[in-house]
Design a protein that fits this description.
alpha/beta; Rossmann fold; 6-stranded antiparallel sheet; 6-stranded mixed sheet; globular
Length: about 375
Amino acid sequence: MHVRRVELTDFRSYERVAVDLDPGVSVLVGQNGMGKTNLIEALGYVATLDSHRVATDAPLVRAGATSAVIRCAIVHDGRELLVELEIVPGKANRARLNRSPVRRPREVLGALRMVLFAPEDLELVRGDPAERRRYLDDLLVARQPRYAGVRADYDRVIKQRNALLRTAYLTRKVGGSRNTDLSTLMVWDQHLARHGAELLAGRLELVAALGPHLTKAYDAVAAGRGQATITYTSALGDALVADRSGLEQALLAALEDRRTAEIERGVTLVGPHRDDLTLVLGDLPAKGYASHGESWSFALALRLAAYDLLRSDGIEPVLVLDDVFAELDAGRRDRLAALVSDAAQLLVTCAVPDDVPATLRGTRFDVTTGAVTRVH
């Protein structure tokens, strides 16, 4: 799989730009603030319908414009697919495949499989559990796009259930009855358990498949200094198995057990949205114990493990390294270059060309304000 062409209209800093890309290595060179990451962000949006930098769509639209458009031509197994996305803040985004409208934008997921490593990924190790949950769910959708619907259904249930819990909380604060709220909540419990069990089972299967790739990737990046492992942590306990029926019953039981606490706090306390991916280095959790270099190695290993897992599934994703080499020492740079040099398509961004190892200096593009120019 590779991106043959990407066109942006009113996306971030670009009024209009078109870039033709080749398989193999492409290096985007430009000073900070010139728009290198904006281009990468647009490709990431095609792959995930989300930005790795901001939580809402509004910042993606160029100042003064009402919408942004991304067009991306993707070649896979000798066939080309054109994905078009129109981002309209405050309204429903629109999508087309091969110029035909689709009912929901998420129907384009799977057209572009991409693994992106960026400086923000240090938060996978040092940040909140939400960062690690997003990592798992994005990879889950990349492997099996149907999970986009599962995520959307689960998020909708949590939103509705939290609204009801908030109402029950406020009713209780003024001394009112909560029986109506409880009867309504039980309906949403069923929905949460069903969709939550599906999402949780997918995550558990994913972590089991990802673990060996993660250990191998960290060993390669860190040159054998320490062993990295991952475990899935849930309020349901440690003895989790990817059995959807069993998980559904366990979620229902946990919801019943936490009912009083949920009403007292006005929020859903049970479900995959409360879980975490625990990162372990040696015998200690990476968060809080890993050094800066070890944290970088772990974050990089997580992305490389995702890349290797997709490849083992028969998917050849586009690999993107966004301003990564400037953050790594010479040893990690060379080891990373050796690990990714055979990628079907590798996109590298940098401010200083010398930061990129010589083995990865392929086609070069210079990025200036609003423009991308092929150099060689």
